[in-house]
């Protein structure tokens, strides 16, 4: 493992304020940066803004201001959000920085001098939104194959980078370096893309069409294509934003984190540019998946863009960081739903971790005078050893998961220990031990083990939830700080001497939060709740019960009486159709024996309407009707699946509609 760790996020366009998608990549990079700093590696973590190009020029024109003023005005929305999210970037680059522009020009000149850039007439189909040309065969019905907006035929003299000549070298590199493009499905996608001939890359725009960019050093009438300018940021930052003189030695980057939308530009454009510049390629490019919101594509026009600022204000920064990385395996697409957020908040943060910390510190206060007692090896039991063993295995597992960017599995592993620790308290029952003076030594040993497991958990959650870790650290009276490389070697159970006083403090994750109001409409920072949002939530819980709040906590168990209130019935699907403007919802007409019902269900990604006709399923027949996208739903269907529907619950065709399911 290399001693240095250079991690980057995409540099985000300043055409709008940041949303959860931008927060996601940046939080993921932050977790890695924090983890590897704790592991003693020399970390450089870069993020920043992509300030040139057509999108930014258009956004400025719309606001009736010049592009630089526009960028300067929007920049704080990103910087302030990163501060709020506890992002620990080492540098924040802006592509309008003079030093960056000079380095872009130097790279261009070097390629031009080597005849790797040439001028030619080009005619093609241009998509203004994506700022790229498409060939005749790419364009479908006059539309951009990527964003489906209309394309226009544009003819101009441009400069081209001889990208095509690197095709085979790039294929060879990808094949020889399995970790170069991750996850594997994306690697295969890029290899598939490279099966087709690779064209040269147009890297200039005439100023007559676009003036907002870095001027070509060899032609003052042109500016650089925004991607050529933007990608160079990963190198330029090392020259003027990283500590010197070691800055440039951070290259090659350990990891470029990107969303799947910009995989090709990174895996193909950037890699071939680097080959042209005779620089080593980054060690890894990881393309993560895409967030939708309550089953819908996130967009301003739909009014469903989730504002990270509002989420943080409502739930706290660490709950937000936790949810994004816990909910979806990194690399896969995910859906942001308020129901899922609240469910995890209540079960995993408030109940599991919050309770553990609060119970343990209360008992240390009550039974040990707010000091962590020494343990007496003679009073140790298998329960203690089981806890110690699980904690001792934790960091090895974390290290492996984070190497593979399995944030969700890393958190799952940590929460395994949280749950074990809660069970440990239930089984050892320190409050009972405290009533019997003969058990004093056993009680102190149990309390010591509790302090130790909290110490391990404090270190483990630190990269994910810095604020929580800091609160746990001070409450436990630990004198170390997270600026120290605390995980250079993994902690050993029992080797810590506690010197400080423990304090209980307030609840880390208070319950009874105010109702959600975290989706932004047209004003990015404005929070709102709509009735339709509420019904979306209800419906979401209906269409997939496991999303609706199933938790592992005993506090959430229900009695048989409550369960018996739910009327499950056999139903036959008579009609099925898609709900317009939704790729997830299907409107079903079902026969429930005594009547026909309409049910709107979030199963449209799994099933085409036609394959459901005539099928026999199970429905909840006594749910209050709810509206979803304005359509009334009179019940819910039963389906399996943690988040995405895996399968509806089908019954044999001869099961009679209306029959009870018990
Ligand atoms: O593409 N789900 O900038 P950009 C997950 N400037 N991630 C999302 C997301 C979503 N719904 N929406 C955005 C650019 N992202 C260029 C990059 S890099 C040299 C130049 C995240 O503002 C994700 O990381 O459009 C995605 O790749 C990035 O924001 C796109 O940001």
List all distinct small molecules, including ions and cofactors, that are bound in this structure.
ligand ME8
Question: End-to-end span in angstroms?
Answer: 56 Å
- Overall residue-averaged pLDDT value: 90
Question: Radius of gyration, rounded?
Answer: 28 Å
Helix content: 25-40%
Overview of the molecule:
The chain has 662 residues and is α+β, with helices and mostly antiparallel strands. The chain has 3 domains: 211 residues, Rossmann fold; 139 residues, Orthogonal Bundle (Isoleucyl-tRNA Synthetase, Domain 1), CATH 1.10.730.10; 117 residues, Beta Barrel (OB fold (Dihydrolipoamide Acetyltransferase, E2P)). It is built from 19 helices and 29 strands. Strands 19, 20, 21, 22, 25, 28 and 29 form a 7-stranded antiparallel sheet that branches. It has a 6-stranded parallel sheet with strand order 3-2-1-12-13-7, with helices on both faces. About 5% of the residues have low confidence. The structure holds ligand ME8. Ligand ME8 binds next to β1, α1, α7 and β12.
């Amino acid at each position: 493992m290399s001693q240095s760790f250079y991690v980057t996020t995409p540099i985000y366009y300043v055409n709008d304020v940041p949303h959860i998608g931008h927060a996601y990549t940046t939080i993921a990079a932050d977790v890695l940066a924090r983890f590897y700093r704790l592991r003693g590696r020399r970390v450089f973590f870069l993020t920043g803004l992509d300030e040139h190009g057509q999108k930014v020029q258009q956004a400025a024109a719309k606001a009736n201001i010049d592009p630089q003023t526009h960028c300067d005005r929007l920049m704080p929305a990103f910087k302030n959000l990163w501060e709020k999210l506890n992002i620990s970037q080492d540098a924040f680059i802006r592509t309008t920085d003079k030093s960056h522009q000079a380095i872009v020009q130097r790279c261009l000149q070097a390629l031009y001098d080597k005849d790797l850039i040439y001028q030619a007439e080009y005619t093609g189909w241009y998509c203004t939104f994506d700022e790229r040309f498409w060939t005749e065969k790419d364009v479908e019905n006059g539309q951009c194959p990527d964003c489906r907006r209309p394309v226009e035929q544009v003819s101009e003299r441009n400069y081209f980078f001889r990208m095509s000549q690197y095709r085979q070298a790039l294929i060879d590199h990808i094949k020889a370096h399995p970790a170069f493009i991750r996850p594997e499905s994306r690697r295969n996608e890029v290899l598939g893309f490279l099966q087709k001939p690779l064209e040269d890359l147009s890297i200039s725009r005439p100023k007559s069409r676009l003036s907002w960019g870095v001027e070509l050093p060899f032609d003052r009438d042109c500016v650089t294509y925004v991607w050529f300018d933007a990608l160079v940021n990963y190198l330029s930052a090392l020259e003027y934003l990283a500590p010197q003189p070691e800055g440039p030695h951070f290259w090659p980057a350990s990891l470029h984190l990107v969303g799947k939308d910009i995989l090709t530009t990174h895996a193909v454009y950037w890699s071939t540019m680097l080959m042209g510049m005779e620089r080593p390629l980054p060690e890894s490019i990881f393309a993560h998946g895409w967030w939708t919101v309550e089953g819908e594509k996130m967009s301003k026009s739909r009014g469903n863009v989730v504002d990270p600022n509002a989420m943080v204000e409502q739930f706290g920064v660490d709950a937000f960081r936790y949810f994004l990385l816990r909910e979806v395996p990194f690399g896969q697409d995910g859906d942001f739903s308020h129901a899922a957020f609240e469910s995890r908040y209540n079960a995993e943060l408030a109940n599991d971790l919050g309770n553990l910390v609060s119970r343990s510190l209360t008992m240390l206060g009550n039974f040990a005078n707010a000091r962590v007692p020494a343990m007496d090896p003679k009073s140790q039991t298998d329960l203690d050893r089981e806890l110690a063993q699980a904690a001792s295995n934790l960091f090895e597992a974390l290290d492996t998961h984070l190497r593979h960017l399995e944030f969700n599995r890393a958190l799952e592993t940590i929460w395994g220990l949280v749950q074990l620790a809660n069970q440990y308290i239930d089984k050892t029952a320190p409050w009972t031990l405290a009533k019997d003076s003969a058990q004093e030594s056993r009680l102190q040993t149990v309390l010591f083990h509790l302090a130790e497991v909290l110490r391990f958990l404090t270190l483990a959650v630190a990269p994910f939830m810095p604020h929580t870790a800091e609160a746990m650290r001070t409450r436990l009276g630990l004198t170390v700080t997270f600026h120290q490389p605390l995980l250079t070697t993994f902690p050993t159970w029992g080797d810590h001497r506690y010197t400080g006083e423990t304090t209980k403090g307030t609840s880390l994750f208070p319950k009874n939060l105010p109702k959600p109001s975290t989706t932004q409409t047209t004003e990015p920072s404005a929070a709102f709740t709509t009735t339709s949002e509420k019904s979306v939530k209800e419906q979401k819980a209906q269409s997939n019960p496991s999303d609706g709040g199933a938790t592992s906590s005993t506090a959430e168990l229900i009695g048989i009486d409550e369960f018996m209130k739910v009327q499950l019935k056999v139903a036959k699907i008579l009609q099925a159709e898609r709900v317009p403007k939704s790729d997830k919802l299907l409107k079903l007409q079902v026969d429930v024996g005594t009547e026909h019902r309409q049910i709107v269900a979030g199963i449209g990604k799994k099933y085409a309407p036609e394959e459901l006709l005539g099928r026999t399923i199970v429905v909840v027949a006594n749910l209050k009707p709810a509206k979803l996208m304005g359509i009334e739903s009179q019940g819910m269907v039963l389906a399996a699946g943690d988040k995405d529907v895996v399968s509806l619950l089908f019954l044999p065709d001869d099961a009679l509609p209306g029959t009870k399911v018990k």
